[in-house]
Amino acid sequence: MSQGIKFILAVLLFLCLIDWPYGYYQMVRFCSMAGFTYLAYQAFLEDQKTELYVFLLLAVLFQPVVKISLGRTLWNIVDVLVGLGLVFSALRKKQE
């Protein structure tokens, strides 16, 4: 299930490169926070400390309550890097 969540989050983040209404970005922030929190919990259960901290950091970065203002260009870079990281992480887990 974690691989599916990673792929879904990656697609949502890649779609942020398109010019959407602001509500889409709010939905992505909420879904990302929920997804990264779940992935952090799974990493905790599997005693994977590095993944736990990375997913917690990403949950805080994408949380919708206190918005972190990075500007559109920097957010696009973050979205692509995080999306690629999620895809590679999901593919690596499938091969193990």
Write down the secondary-structure element order. HHHH
Q: pLDDT under 50 segments (min length 5)?
A: none
Helicity range: over 70%
Say how many strands there are: 0
Q: How many angstroms separate the termini?
A: 15 Å
Multimeric status of the protein:
single chain
- Helix tally equals 4
Q: Looking at the structure, what is the overall shape?
A: globular
Structural class comes to: mainly alpha
Sheet bearing the most strands, described?
none
Strand content bin:
under 5%
Gyration radius, in Å: 13 Å
SSE blueprint and pairings:
Blueprint: H1 2-15, H2 22-45, H3 49-62, H4 72-95
Helix pairs in contact: 1-2, 1-4, 2-3
Features:
96 residues, mainly alpha, 4 helices, 0% strand, globular
Describe this structure in words.
With 96 residues, this protein is mainly α. The mean pLDDT is 90. The longest helix has 24 residues, at 22-45. Helix content is 79%, strand content 0%. The chain contains four helices and no strands. It has helices at 2-15, 22-45, 49-62, 72-95. Helix 1 runs antiparallel to helix 2 (22-45), helix 1 (2-15) runs antiparallel to helix 4 (72-95) and helix 2 (22-45) runs antiparallel to helix 3 (49-62). It starts with a helix and ends with a helix.
